[in-house]
Design goal:
CATH architecture of the largest domain in chain A: 3-Layer(bba) Sandwich
Order of helices and strands of chain B: HHEEHHEEHEE
Radius of gyration of chain B: 15 Å
CATH topology of the largest domain in chain A: FAD/NAD(P)-binding domain
Strand content of chain B: 15-25%
Cofactor (chain A): FAD
CATH architecture of chain B: 2-Layer Sandwich
Enzyme class (chain A): oxidoreductase
Helix content of chain A: 25-40%
EC number (chain A): 1.5.5.1
Protein name (chain A): Electron transfer flavoprotein-ubiquinone oxidoreductase
Shape of chain A: globular
CATH superfamily of the largest domain in chain A: FAD/NAD(P)-binding domain
Strand content of chain A: 25-35%
Radius of gyration of chain A: 23 Å
Oligomer: heterodimer
Largest interface: A-B, 59 and 48 residues
Largest sheet of chain A: 8 strands, mixed
Distance between the termini of chain B: 32 Å
Number of helices of chain A: 15
Largest sheet of chain B: 2 strands, antiparallel
CATH class of chain B: Alpha Beta
Pfam families (chain A): ETF-QO_FixC_C, FAD_oxidored
Strand order of the largest sheet of chain B: 1-6
Chain lengths: 431, 104
């Protein structure tokens, strides 16, 4: 297949498909290469897809895409060993068009999304690994695949090969990631009848809930658990930094079983049948770990460029915006017949100026701060649970005395100055 | 507390083996994972961390050498990044091979 394309996109995930779709729609000759059996067969995410960024690419996509449930309630749990302090928001405005976000099963969704790119003219080739970029005189001019006679050429290569981005690394765009830059997440899909889901999560049909779980879900290690409702199944998972797993000698599936068996969680999944188990890395290094994303004849999009906002569980939407912006820049580059780093740099500038760059920058120190100051997860979440328990237990103690006692127990064994510093530090990285 | 202590009381809702059976694999005849130097595992790495954090329990220490059950690999990349001695050569399985997620 020694054919030349306008653009080759490596990896059919949200970033790669978005780029391929936008370019093909504009009339470019696009090759989309996926190493899995089909798009989505190697892809994992908790399951929440945001509407807005996808809508910018295919307006009204939700009328035909295979989606599970629109999310009407987003809960946050600060979990203790036998308790939980909850907050969240339920808004029925999210149950109607244009929606806020949806749960999706990636294998279904990605296949559908890739088929849309094919519809507008992209050529999709599955079961093909890109082993390296072909570089000539400092420019990327194509890719080498693991097929016989598998060199393919293009004016520009879009690298969307995911969190491990072996291609980005081989181009020298980044060094090997550190265990603190990635979270190892494992999840299960658990089949459960729709009525059970609706009863247990207090939902109408075609409404969904997400729960993010902090604290005991990861035994105090930096990370989160999650429970998302699909139509007739539940995604339950837990992710923690690889460095945290290593430090505490944890097996990720043990953490998952711990969460599934937690007395607060157990009733939600009771009677469910495990249907799939999946593991994946999440790039959590944020802005500070972002690699170089533009070179001569090449751009990097999505997880490959560490475009994940771990604090807000956003990633696929950032990937889609990155893919779209990269595609729009390549369309301009095609008109100018200039695929130099200088020209393609417009993509980087626009990305950093978009919500992607701004949000990544806003939280650039957050992950690192929580990693190096484990007290937020180890101490404060149990403290909040203890305080809530005391506050809501009616035992004849007058409220004023109760508040005093709670404050005393909260500050027990802790310097007040230290706590003030902790609060200030958290505010600073989150503001 | 370390992992084993923390987790010693956790009842298994399903074992890892049962979890792995939920998945479909199209294993290649060749491994895409290689331990570069078994001596490093034997002499420098008492904790054998990869045997712990690998979500597919691909790595098992057999007393003298590290066995690599690449057939059950999730292709997550943790072993490459997490091995303190950079002792694992990590590639993708050949196109179309390896794990096939149907739902995730």
């Amino acid at each position: 297949m020694s054919e030349k394309f306008d653009a080759i996109v490596v990896g059919a995930g949200p970033a790669g498909i978005s780029a391929a779709y936008v370019m093909a729609k504009a009339g470019l000759n696009v090759l989309l290469i996926e190493r899995g059996e089909y798009p989505g067969s190697k892809n994992v995410m908790g399951g929440v897809l945001y509407r807005h960024q996808m809508d910018e690419i295919i307006p009204g996509f939700y009328k035909e895409a295979p989606l599970e449930r629109p999310i009407v309630e987003q809960r946050f749990w600060m979990m203790g060993e036998e308790s939980v302090f909850t907050s969240g928001y339920k808004g029925l405005e999210w149950s109607k068009e244009p929606y806020n976000n949806f749960t999706v099963l990636r294998a279904k969704f990605d296949q559908w999304y890739a088929s849309k790119a094919v519809e507008v003219g992209a050529l999709l080739i599955n079961e093909t690994v890109v082993t390296e970029c072909i570089v000539e005189d400092g420019r990327v001019i194509g890719v080498r695949t693991d097929r016989p006679d598998g060199d393919v050429y293009a004016d520009v290569v879009v690298i969307a090969d995911g969190v491990n981005s072996l291609l980005g690394k081989s181009l020298g765009f980044h060094k090997e990631f550190k265990p603190s830059d990635v979270a190892l997440a494992v999840m299960e899909v658990i089949d459960l009848p729709a009525e059970k889901i609706e009863d247990r999560f207090n939902l109408e049909p075609n409404q969904g809930t997400t729960i993010e779980i902090f604290g005991d879900a990861t035994k105090g290690i930096l990370g989160t658990g999650f429970i998302y409702t699909n139509k007739e199944s539940i995604n339950i998972g837990v992710g923690a930094t690889l460095s945290g797993m290593i430090k505490h000698r944890l097996r990720p599936y043990d953490l998952l079983d711990y969460l599934k068996d937690h007395p607060i969680v157990r009733p939600l999944i009771r009677g469910g049948e495990p249907a799939e188990y999946a593991a994946h890395l999440i790039p959590e290094g944020g802005y500070n770990a972002m690699p170089k994303i533009v070179g001569n004849g090449v751009v990097l999009v999505g997880d490959a460029g560490q475009m994940v906002n771990g604090i807000h569980r956003e990633g696929s939407n950032m990937a889609m915006t990155a893919g779209r912006l990269a595609a729009e820049t390549i369309i301009l580059a095609k008109q100018a017949n200039d695929f130099s780093e200088n020209m393609l740099d417009t993509y980087r500038v626009r990305l950093l100026d978009s919500f992607v760059g701004r949000d990544l920058k806003k939280y650039k120190d957050a992950t690192h701060t929580f990693e190096t100051h484990p007290q937020y997860f180890n101490d404060y979440i149990p403290m909040i649970n203890k305080a809530a328990s005391q506050f809501f237990t009616i035992d004849g103690v007058p409220k004023r005395d109760k508040q005093k006692k709670i404050f005393r127990s909260l500050t027990e064994g802790k310097s007040k100055l230290g706590m003030v510093q902790d609060i200030y530090r958290a505010w600073k990285v989150m503001k | 507390m370390e992992g084993d202590e923390i987790m010693s009381l956790v009842p298994r809702t399903n074992t890892l083996e049962e979890k792995q059976y939920l998945l479909r694999y199209r294993a290649d005849s060749q491994s895409h994972l290689h331990v570069l130097n078994n001596d490093v595992c034997a002499t420098s790495c008492p904790d054998k961390l990869c045997t712990l954090f690998c979500p597919g329990e691909v790595y098992k220490w057999e007393g003298k050498r590290m066995s690599v059950g690449y057939e059950g690999c999730h292709e997550c990349g943790s072993c490459r990044i997490g091995c303190p001695y950079e002792n694992i050569k990590w590639e993708y399985p050949k196109g179309g091979h390896g794990i096939v997620f149907r739902l995730a």
